[in-house]
């Protein structure tokens, strides 16, 4: 890799930095999510895995920046932050919208001759499995109803008008980017893929999750958990075990 001249501190959050971890795991949030969602993952996997959480523009300390317009453009921005002289193997984990971004980042890395150690895709249908979704076109009440249906926001935050004023614009932008994404056919990845999903996730069927198999010429695994779109909130230990097991099989440099 070549050293990037951009400031990665806005994009990449390493909550538990360590030079002894033999592998790095880049974690990409869901629509409306932030890097902090992966703080518990970083804490649990350190020091065996160094977790790098991505902070998208338009939220929290980046709220003054324009939001997301295109998942492909977002993936390219993330890819640019990852171009560093660190030669440790790099794996990717993305949930929901973040899974698609992780996939597109993996494609860019492989185009650059860098095969990711592993790609973990959670709560998202395979890129080739299109759905005509238009949640981003709904009014505010409809958007809030969709978020409550997915149960991705803790507590009664969505009932707080002040919170809604701060986050609805960002969430709508994220939904627009995710729902207008169109897969461009190309070569299958060379890295292993593990797809993780809830067994009654309204956003992805088991068939759509299993179709990730078609996007790699390496090994593929499908893990199905009891739960909906945010199944991983109640199955964190099992998800972490899945990650640890897969990453222990990666050759260390």
TrEMBL record:
InterPro entries: AB_hydrolase_fold, TEII, TesA-like, Thioesterase. Gene3D superfamilies: alpha/beta hydrolase. Keywords: Hydrolase. Residues 26-247 form the Thioesterase TesA-like domain. One of its GO terms (molecular function) is hydrolase activity. Pfam families: Thioesterase. SMART domains: PKS_TE. Belongs to the thioesterase family. PANTHER family: S-ACYL FATTY ACID SYNTHASE THIOESTERASE, MEDIUM CHAIN (PTHR11487:SF0), THIOESTERASE (PTHR11487). This is Oleoyl-ACP hydrolase. It comes from Actinoplanes ianthinogenes. The lineage of its organism: Bacteria, Bacillati, Actinomycetota, Actinomycetes, Micromonosporales.
